[in-house]
Design brief:
With about 110 residues, this protein is of the alpha+beta class. The protein is about 55% helix and about 15% strand.
Length: about 110
């Protein structure tokens, strides 16, 4: 499969990304999602370093994806007797909160990297 390069902007910084021909719309949608997530973290005003913003934005996106119900075609193939496994339990939410707190503390202690 051939690829092409697209220049995109994330948080005002340009990136040249490789993309399979025909996948431009999906890549641009992903870039938009990442840009929005990173800008949201940045605009909260607590974190200034771009690498920290990226880590927290990635965690937020992964957390949102884990909570999202599976697509309709995946639901149809799932056994009816099992509950949705993508839902997080209370202990999972607590563990994720603790992980985010530890990550924030560790990143805060190492000083600004950028």
């Amino acid at each position: 499969m051939s690829t092409k390069q697209l220049e995109v902007q994330i948080m005002g910084q340009s990136y040249l990304l490789g993309c399979p021909v025909g996948g431009e719309d999906r890549l641009l949608a992903a870039v938009d999602k990442v840009d929005q997530a990173m800008c949201k973290v940045r605009d909260a005003g607590k974190i200034k370093a771009r690498d920290r913003i990226a880590v927290l934005a990635a965690l937020n996106l992964a957390f949102e994806q884990a909570e999202a119900p599976p697509p309709a075609d995946k639901q149809a193939t799932a056994p009816e007797t099992t509950e949705t496994t993508s839902a997080l339990s209370d202990s999972d939410h607590e563990r994720l909160g603790q992980l985010l707190k530890k990550l924030d503390q560790a990143l805060h202690q190492d000083g600004q990297l950028i």
